[in-house]
Protein backbone atom coordinates (compact mmCIF):
# COMPACT_ATOMS: atom_id res chain seq x y z
CA UNK A 1 0.00 0.00 0.00
CA UNK A 2 1.32 3.44 -0.90
CA UNK A 3 -0.21 6.81 0.10
CA UNK A 4 -3.35 4.99 1.24
CA UNK A 5 -3.94 3.40 -2.16
CA UNK A 6 -3.91 -0.38 -2.31
CA UNK A 7 -1.70 -1.72 -5.05
CA UNK A 8 -3.07 -4.43 -7.31
CA UNK A 9 -2.06 -7.54 -5.38
CA UNK A 10 -1.71 -11.23 -6.08
CA UNK A 11 -4.50 -13.61 -5.16
CA UNK A 12 -3.81 -16.69 -3.13
CA UNK A 13 -3.73 -20.04 -4.92
CA UNK A 14 -7.26 -21.42 -5.09
CA UNK A 15 -6.06 -24.55 -3.24
CA UNK A 16 -5.34 -22.36 -0.19
CA UNK A 17 -9.01 -21.37 0.07
CA UNK A 18 -11.37 -23.33 2.31
CA UNK A 19 -14.30 -25.31 0.96
CA UNK A 20 -17.72 -25.83 2.46
CA UNK A 21 -18.10 -28.75 4.88
CA UNK A 22 -20.67 -29.98 7.39
CA UNK A 23 -19.44 -27.57 10.06
CA UNK A 24 -19.83 -24.50 7.83
CA UNK A 25 -23.27 -25.63 6.66
CA UNK A 26 -24.27 -26.10 10.31
CA UNK A 27 -23.19 -22.53 11.10
CA UNK A 28 -25.22 -21.21 8.17
CA UNK A 29 -28.30 -23.10 9.40
CA UNK A 30 -27.60 -21.74 12.90
CA UNK A 31 -27.49 -18.21 11.44
CA UNK A 32 -30.84 -18.78 9.72
CA UNK A 33 -32.41 -20.02 12.95
CA UNK A 34 -31.00 -17.10 14.97
CA UNK A 35 -32.24 -14.55 12.44
CA UNK A 36 -35.71 -16.12 12.35
CA UNK A 37 -35.87 -16.08 16.14
CA UNK A 38 -34.81 -12.42 16.43
CA UNK A 39 -37.35 -11.41 13.80
CA UNK A 40 -40.08 -12.65 16.15
CA UNK A 41 -38.40 -11.58 19.40
CA UNK A 42 -35.40 -9.18 19.23
CA UNK A 43 -34.16 -10.43 22.60
CA UNK A 44 -34.30 -14.12 21.70
CA UNK A 45 -31.09 -16.02 20.99
CA UNK A 46 -29.61 -19.49 20.61
CA UNK A 47 -26.22 -20.40 22.00
CA UNK A 48 -24.01 -22.11 19.41
CA UNK A 49 -22.96 -24.96 21.78
CA UNK A 50 -26.63 -25.78 22.43
CA UNK A 51 -27.39 -25.75 18.70
CA UNK A 52 -24.33 -27.87 17.85
CA UNK A 53 -25.13 -30.50 20.48
CA UNK A 54 -28.90 -30.38 20.90
CA UNK A 55 -32.23 -30.84 19.17
CA UNK A 56 -34.53 -28.20 17.73
CA UNK A 57 -36.69 -28.57 20.83
CA UNK A 58 -33.69 -28.05 23.10
CA UNK A 59 -32.93 -24.81 21.26
CA UNK A 60 -36.45 -23.50 21.88
CA UNK A 61 -37.19 -23.23 18.16
CA UNK A 62 -40.89 -22.85 17.36
CA UNK A 63 -42.63 -24.59 14.45
CA UNK A 64 -42.79 -21.29 12.55
CA UNK A 65 -39.05 -20.69 12.95
CA UNK A 66 -38.20 -24.26 11.95
CA UNK A 67 -40.37 -23.92 8.84
CA UNK A 68 -38.51 -20.73 7.93
CA UNK A 69 -35.11 -22.39 8.40
CA UNK A 70 -36.20 -25.37 6.30
CA UNK A 71 -37.43 -23.09 3.51
CA UNK A 72 -34.35 -20.86 3.53
CA UNK A 73 -31.88 -23.75 3.62
CA UNK A 74 -33.50 -25.48 0.66
CA UNK A 75 -33.47 -22.23 -1.31
CA UNK A 76 -29.85 -21.34 -0.50
CA UNK A 77 -28.35 -24.79 -1.11
CA UNK A 78 -30.78 -25.82 -3.89
CA UNK A 79 -31.63 -29.13 -2.21
CA UNK A 80 -34.71 -31.15 -1.31
CA UNK A 81 -34.24 -32.77 2.07
CA UNK A 82 -36.65 -34.31 4.54
CA UNK A 83 -38.31 -31.95 7.00
CA UNK A 84 -36.43 -32.20 10.33
CA UNK A 85 -38.01 -33.74 13.40
CA UNK A 86 -38.18 -31.38 16.34
CA UNK A 87 -36.51 -34.03 18.51
CA UNK A 88 -33.70 -34.73 16.05
CA UNK A 89 -30.26 -33.14 16.51
CA UNK A 90 -29.90 -29.86 14.62
CA UNK A 91 -26.69 -31.12 13.04
CA UNK A 92 -28.54 -33.99 11.36
CA UNK A 93 -30.38 -31.50 9.18
CA UNK A 94 -27.11 -29.73 8.32
CA UNK A 95 -25.54 -33.06 7.32
CA UNK A 96 -28.49 -33.91 5.09
CA UNK A 97 -28.22 -30.51 3.40
CA UNK A 98 -24.46 -30.86 2.89
CA UNK A 99 -24.72 -34.35 1.39
CA UNK A 100 -27.25 -33.21 -1.19
CA UNK A 101 -25.49 -29.90 -1.86
CA UNK A 102 -22.37 -31.73 -3.03
CA UNK A 103 -24.26 -32.76 -6.17
CA UNK A 104 -24.58 -29.17 -7.44
CA UNK A 105 -22.01 -27.19 -5.42
CA UNK A 106 -23.76 -23.87 -5.97
CA UNK A 107 -25.13 -21.40 -3.44
CA UNK A 108 -28.03 -18.99 -3.90
CA UNK A 109 -28.20 -15.69 -2.06
CA UNK A 110 -31.06 -13.22 -2.14
CA UNK A 111 -31.17 -9.45 -2.52
CA UNK A 112 -33.09 -7.53 0.15
CA UNK A 113 -36.14 -7.10 -2.11
CA UNK A 114 -37.34 -4.06 -0.21
CA UNK A 115 -39.57 -2.83 -3.05
CA UNK A 116 -40.46 -6.14 -4.65
CA UNK A 117 -39.62 -9.83 -4.78
CA UNK A 118 -36.07 -10.61 -3.59
CA UNK A 119 -33.80 -11.58 -6.48
CA UNK A 120 -32.05 -14.94 -6.35
CA UNK A 121 -28.32 -14.73 -7.11
CA UNK A 122 -26.63 -18.10 -7.66
CA UNK A 123 -22.86 -18.59 -7.49
CA UNK A 124 -20.75 -21.68 -8.09
CA UNK A 125 -18.37 -22.80 -5.38
CA UNK A 126 -15.46 -21.95 -7.69
CA UNK A 127 -16.66 -18.34 -8.08
CA UNK A 128 -16.95 -17.90 -4.32
CA UNK A 129 -13.53 -19.42 -3.64
CA UNK A 130 -12.00 -17.22 -6.34
CA UNK A 131 -13.33 -14.17 -4.52
CA UNK A 132 -11.90 -15.43 -1.23
CA UNK A 133 -8.52 -15.98 -2.88
CA UNK A 134 -8.50 -12.26 -3.72
CA UNK A 135 -9.62 -11.11 -0.27
CA UNK A 136 -7.57 -13.35 2.04
CA UNK A 137 -4.15 -11.70 1.39
CA UNK A 138 -5.51 -8.37 2.65
CA UNK A 139 -6.22 -9.76 6.14
CA UNK A 140 -3.71 -12.62 6.29
CA UNK A 141 -2.34 -11.23 9.59
CA UNK A 142 -5.61 -11.81 11.49
CA UNK A 143 -5.68 -14.27 14.38
CA UNK A 144 -9.30 -13.96 15.63
CA UNK A 145 -12.47 -12.54 14.10
CA UNK A 146 -15.65 -10.97 15.47
CA UNK A 147 -18.58 -11.49 13.09
CA UNK A 148 -21.69 -9.30 13.40
CA UNK A 149 -23.46 -10.14 10.13
CA UNK A 150 -25.73 -13.10 9.22
CA UNK A 151 -23.76 -15.98 7.71
CA UNK A 152 -26.49 -16.86 5.21
CA UNK A 153 -26.19 -13.50 3.45
CA UNK A 154 -23.40 -13.19 0.90
CA UNK A 155 -21.34 -10.64 2.88
CA UNK A 156 -21.57 -12.75 6.02
CA UNK A 157 -20.90 -16.00 4.17
CA UNK A 158 -17.77 -14.70 2.45
CA UNK A 159 -16.24 -12.53 5.17
CA UNK A 160 -17.76 -13.90 8.37
CA UNK A 161 -17.68 -17.63 7.67
CA UNK A 162 -15.37 -18.68 4.84
CA UNK A 163 -12.68 -16.01 5.32
CA UNK A 164 -11.88 -17.02 8.93
CA UNK A 165 -11.99 -20.67 7.85
CA UNK A 166 -9.57 -19.94 5.02
CA UNK A 167 -7.23 -18.08 7.40
CA UNK A 168 -7.52 -20.90 9.93
CA UNK A 169 -8.67 -18.56 12.70
CA UNK A 170 -11.64 -18.71 15.11
CA UNK A 171 -14.66 -16.57 14.32
CA UNK A 172 -17.02 -15.48 17.09
CA UNK A 173 -20.59 -14.59 16.11
CA UNK A 174 -22.04 -11.60 17.97
CA UNK A 175 -25.31 -9.69 17.92
CA UNK A 176 -24.83 -6.41 16.03
CA UNK A 177 -25.23 -4.28 19.16
CA UNK A 178 -22.60 -1.59 19.81
CA UNK A 179 -22.14 -2.26 23.52
CA UNK A 180 -21.75 -6.02 22.98
CA UNK A 181 -19.24 -5.55 20.17
CA UNK A 182 -17.34 -2.90 22.13
CA UNK A 183 -16.98 -5.25 25.10
CA UNK A 184 -15.59 -8.04 22.91
CA UNK A 185 -13.36 -6.08 20.59
CA UNK A 186 -10.16 -6.40 22.60
CA UNK A 187 -10.33 -10.16 22.11
CA UNK A 188 -9.99 -10.03 18.31
CA UNK A 189 -8.05 -8.29 15.57
CA UNK A 190 -10.62 -8.56 12.77
CA UNK A 191 -14.15 -7.12 12.91
CA UNK A 192 -16.75 -7.84 10.21
CA UNK A 193 -19.54 -5.24 10.31
CA UNK A 194 -21.94 -3.08 8.31
CA UNK A 195 -21.63 0.75 8.31
CA UNK A 196 -24.68 1.20 10.55
CA UNK A 197 -22.96 -0.61 13.41
CA UNK A 198 -19.68 1.22 12.84
CA UNK A 199 -21.52 4.56 12.89
CA UNK A 200 -22.87 3.72 16.32
CA UNK A 201 -19.59 2.29 17.63
CA UNK A 202 -17.55 5.43 17.05
CA UNK A 203 -19.97 7.48 19.15
CA UNK A 204 -19.78 5.21 22.18
CA UNK A 205 -18.09 6.92 25.14
CA UNK A 206 -15.46 4.19 25.32
CA UNK A 207 -14.45 4.87 21.72
CA UNK A 208 -14.42 8.66 21.85
CA UNK A 209 -12.85 9.08 25.30
CA UNK A 210 -11.61 5.87 26.89
CA UNK A 211 -9.78 4.24 24.01
CA UNK A 212 -6.43 5.65 22.99
CA UNK A 213 -5.61 3.28 20.15
CA UNK A 214 -7.03 0.30 18.29
CA UNK A 215 -4.00 -0.08 16.04
CA UNK A 216 -4.19 -3.88 16.06
CA UNK A 217 -7.80 -3.93 14.79
CA UNK A 218 -8.72 -4.42 11.13
CA UNK A 219 -12.33 -3.58 10.27
CA UNK A 220 -14.07 -4.95 7.19
CA UNK A 221 -17.11 -2.93 6.11
CA UNK A 222 -19.54 -3.55 3.26
CA UNK A 223 -23.21 -3.53 2.09
CA UNK A 224 -23.39 0.31 2.00
CA UNK A 225 -21.05 3.32 1.75
CA UNK A 226 -19.12 3.96 4.95
CA UNK A 227 -19.63 7.66 5.85
CA UNK A 228 -16.45 9.70 5.53
CA UNK A 229 -16.70 10.99 9.10
CA UNK A 230 -16.98 7.44 10.46
CA UNK A 231 -14.01 6.40 8.32
CA UNK A 232 -12.01 9.28 9.82
CA UNK A 233 -13.01 8.52 13.42
CA UNK A 234 -11.98 4.90 13.03
CA UNK A 235 -8.68 6.04 11.55
CA UNK A 236 -8.06 8.38 14.49
CA UNK A 237 -8.23 5.38 16.81
CA UNK A 238 -5.63 3.58 14.70
CA UNK A 239 -8.04 1.10 13.08
CA UNK A 240 -7.13 -0.29 9.68
CA UNK A 241 -10.37 -0.08 7.70
CA UNK A 242 -11.15 -2.03 4.54
CA UNK A 243 -14.30 -0.86 2.74
CA UNK A 244 -15.45 -3.37 0.13
CA UNK A 245 -17.96 -2.73 -2.65
CA UNK A 246 -20.01 -5.44 -4.32
CA UNK A 247 -23.46 -6.95 -4.42
CA UNK A 248 -25.33 -10.23 -4.13
CA UNK A 249 -24.94 -10.59 -7.89
CA UNK A 250 -21.18 -9.95 -8.06
CA UNK A 251 -19.67 -10.62 -4.67
CA UNK A 252 -16.85 -8.29 -3.56
CA UNK A 253 -15.43 -6.28 -6.45
CA UNK A 254 -13.12 -3.57 -5.07
CA UNK A 255 -11.69 -2.18 -1.83
CA UNK A 256 -10.21 0.98 -0.32
CA UNK A 257 -8.64 1.97 3.00
CA UNK A 258 -9.63 5.66 3.14
CA UNK A 259 -12.70 7.64 2.12
CA UNK A 260 -10.41 10.03 0.25
CA UNK A 261 -8.89 7.31 -1.93
CA UNK A 262 -10.16 5.51 -5.02
CA UNK A 263 -11.24 1.88 -4.93
CA UNK A 264 -8.81 -0.79 -6.10
CA UNK A 265 -10.15 -3.72 -8.10
CA UNK A 266 -9.64 -7.11 -6.50
CA UNK A 267 -7.31 -9.41 -8.46
CA UNK A 268 -10.11 -11.48 -10.02
CA UNK A 269 -11.90 -8.35 -11.35
CA UNK A 270 -10.80 -6.58 -14.54
CA UNK A 271 -11.75 -3.41 -16.33
CA UNK A 272 -13.61 -4.04 -19.58
CA UNK A 273 -14.16 -0.81 -21.47
CA UNK A 274 -16.34 1.37 -19.25
CA UNK A 275 -17.40 -1.59 -17.08
CA UNK A 276 -16.10 -4.56 -15.12
CA UNK A 277 -15.88 -8.33 -15.51
CA UNK A 278 -14.82 -11.17 -13.24
CA UNK A 279 -12.44 -13.79 -14.61
CA UNK A 280 -12.54 -17.41 -13.43
CA UNK A 281 -9.54 -19.67 -12.82
CA UNK A 282 -10.10 -21.19 -16.26
CA UNK A 283 -10.28 -17.76 -17.90
CA UNK A 284 -14.05 -17.64 -18.30
CA UNK A 285 -15.51 -14.13 -18.24
CA UNK A 286 -18.31 -13.58 -15.71
CA UNK A 287 -20.66 -10.57 -15.47
CA UNK A 288 -19.85 -7.86 -12.93
CA UNK A 289 -22.37 -5.02 -13.20
CA UNK A 290 -22.43 -2.63 -10.23
CA UNK A 291 -25.43 -0.51 -9.34
CA UNK A 292 -23.18 2.56 -9.15
CA UNK A 293 -21.71 4.63 -11.94
CA UNK A 294 -17.94 4.21 -12.36
CA UNK A 295 -15.22 6.76 -13.08
CA UNK A 296 -11.91 5.00 -13.83
CA UNK A 297 -8.61 6.57 -12.84
CA UNK A 298 -6.68 3.78 -14.53
CA UNK A 299 -7.28 0.10 -15.25
CA UNK A 300 -7.10 -0.88 -11.55
CA UNK A 301 -8.48 2.15 -9.72
CA UNK A 302 -11.87 3.84 -9.85
CA UNK A 303 -14.29 6.03 -7.99
CA UNK A 304 -17.99 5.35 -7.59
CA UNK A 305 -20.57 7.81 -8.84
CA UNK A 306 -24.25 8.09 -7.87
CA UNK A 307 -26.10 4.81 -7.46
CA UNK A 308 -28.01 4.19 -10.65
CA UNK A 309 -31.08 2.69 -9.00
CA UNK A 310 -31.18 5.55 -6.43
CA UNK A 311 -31.17 3.06 -3.57
CA UNK A 312 -30.03 3.85 -0.03
CA UNK A 313 -29.62 1.51 2.93
CA UNK A 314 -31.58 1.42 6.17
CA UNK A 315 -30.35 -1.14 8.74
CA UNK A 316 -28.39 -2.89 5.99
CA UNK A 317 -31.39 -3.23 3.65
CA UNK A 318 -31.77 -1.50 0.29
CA UNK A 319 -34.71 0.92 0.08
CA UNK A 320 -35.74 3.23 -2.73
CA UNK A 321 -36.79 6.74 -1.58
CA UNK A 322 -38.42 7.68 -4.89
CA UNK A 323 -40.60 4.57 -4.89
CA UNK A 324 -41.54 5.14 -1.24
CA UNK A 325 -42.50 8.75 -1.97
CA UNK A 326 -44.74 7.57 -4.81
CA UNK A 327 -46.45 5.11 -2.47
CA UNK A 328 -47.10 7.80 0.14
CA UNK A 329 -48.51 10.13 -2.52
CA UNK A 330 -51.29 7.58 -2.84
CA UNK A 331 -52.53 8.53 0.64
CA UNK A 332 -55.63 10.73 0.67
CA UNK A 333 -54.73 14.38 1.22
CA UNK A 334 -51.07 14.18 0.06
CA UNK A 335 -50.27 16.42 -2.91
CA UNK A 336 -46.52 15.76 -3.00
CA UNK A 337 -44.05 13.71 -1.00
CA UNK A 338 -40.25 13.73 -0.82
CA UNK A 339 -38.28 11.00 0.94
CA UNK A 340 -34.60 11.11 1.93
CA UNK A 341 -32.16 9.33 4.18
CA UNK A 342 -31.67 11.20 7.46
CA UNK A 343 -28.43 13.05 8.03
CA UNK A 344 -26.13 11.44 10.65
CA UNK A 345 -27.15 14.06 13.21
CA UNK A 346 -30.84 13.21 12.66
CA UNK A 347 -30.70 9.43 12.83
CA UNK A 348 -30.31 6.36 10.65
CA UNK A 349 -33.77 6.02 9.07
CA UNK A 350 -35.77 7.73 6.34
CA UNK A 351 -37.55 11.08 6.61
CA UNK A 352 -40.47 12.42 4.56
CA UNK A 353 -41.57 15.90 3.56
CA UNK A 354 -45.32 16.12 2.89
CA UNK A 355 -47.07 18.87 0.91
CA UNK A 356 -50.80 18.61 1.80
CA UNK A 357 -53.66 19.21 -0.58
CA UNK A 358 -55.43 21.08 2.21
CA UNK A 359 -53.12 23.02 4.58
CA UNK A 360 -55.85 22.98 7.24
CA UNK A 361 -56.11 19.16 7.28
CA UNK A 362 -55.32 18.45 10.95
CA UNK A 363 -55.48 14.66 10.61
CA UNK A 364 -53.17 14.27 7.61
CA UNK A 365 -50.06 13.09 9.50
CA UNK A 366 -52.02 10.51 11.45
CA UNK A 367 -53.54 9.26 8.18
CA UNK A 368 -50.12 9.13 6.46
CA UNK A 369 -48.56 7.13 9.31
CA UNK A 370 -51.40 4.58 9.20
CA UNK A 371 -51.09 4.42 5.42
CA UNK A 372 -47.35 3.75 5.71
CA UNK A 373 -47.90 0.89 8.15
CA UNK A 374 -50.23 -0.76 5.67
CA UNK A 375 -48.29 -0.16 2.46
CA UNK A 376 -44.60 -0.11 3.47
CA UNK A 377 -42.23 -2.51 5.23
CA UNK A 378 -40.78 -1.43 8.60
CA UNK A 379 -37.45 -0.25 7.14
CA UNK A 380 -39.25 1.67 4.38
CA UNK A 381 -41.44 3.66 6.78
CA UNK A 382 -40.12 7.17 7.46
CA UNK A 383 -39.21 7.81 11.09
CA UNK A 384 -39.89 11.52 10.67
CA UNK A 385 -42.53 13.56 8.81
CA UNK A 386 -42.38 17.26 8.03
CA UNK A 387 -45.33 19.25 6.65
CA UNK A 388 -44.84 22.24 4.37
CA UNK A 389 -46.81 24.37 1.95
CA UNK A 390 -44.30 23.63 -0.82
CA UNK A 391 -41.33 21.38 -1.43
CA UNK A 392 -38.01 22.79 -0.15
CA UNK A 393 -35.83 24.15 -2.97
CA UNK A 394 -32.59 26.12 -3.17
CA UNK A 395 -31.92 29.40 -4.97
CA UNK A 396 -31.42 27.49 -8.23
CA UNK A 397 -34.84 25.89 -7.89
CA UNK A 398 -33.45 22.42 -7.16
CA UNK A 399 -34.91 20.25 -4.41
CA UNK A 400 -32.87 20.54 -1.22
CA UNK A 401 -32.58 18.81 2.13
CA UNK A 402 -34.66 19.82 5.14
CA UNK A 403 -34.23 19.53 8.88
CA UNK A 404 -36.37 17.04 10.71
CA UNK A 405 -36.88 15.39 14.04
CA UNK A 406 -38.23 11.85 14.63
Structure description:
The chain starts with 21 loop residues before the first helix and ends in a 19-residue tail after the last strand. The chain has helices at residues 22-40, 48-53, 63-77, 90-101, 125-135, 154-167, 178-184, 195-201, 205-210, 228-236, 321-328, 364-375; strands spanning 106-110, 120-124, 145-147, 171-173, 190-193, 218-221, 240-247, 251-256, 263-265, 269-272, 275-279, 285-287, 292-296, 301-307, 312-314, 317-319, 334-341, 350-356, 384-387. It has 406 residues and is an alpha/beta fold.
Q: For the report, how would you describe the main beta sheet?
A: 9 strands, mixed
DSSP strand count: 19
According to CATH, the homologous superfamily of the largest domain is ANL, N-terminal domain
Number of helices: 12
Strand content: 15-25%
Task: Count the domains.
Answer: 2
CA-to-CA gap between the ends?
Answer: 43 Å
Averaging pLDDT over every residue, what do you get?
89
CATH topology of the largest domain: Rossmann fold
Q: Can you tell me the CATH class of the largest domain?
A: Alpha Beta
Name given to the CATH architecture of the largest domain = 3-Layer(aba) Sandwich
Low-confidence stretches: 1-8
- Write down the overall geometry: globular
* Rg estimate, integer Å: 23 Å
> What class do helices, strands and sheet pairing give?
alpha/beta
Short description:
This protein is of the alpha/beta class. The protein has 2 domains: 294 residues, ANL, N-terminal domain (Rossmann fold, 3-Layer(aba) Sandwich); 68 residues, 2-Layer Sandwich (GMP Synthetase, Chain A, domain 3), CATH 3.30.300. The protein is 31% helix and 22% strand.
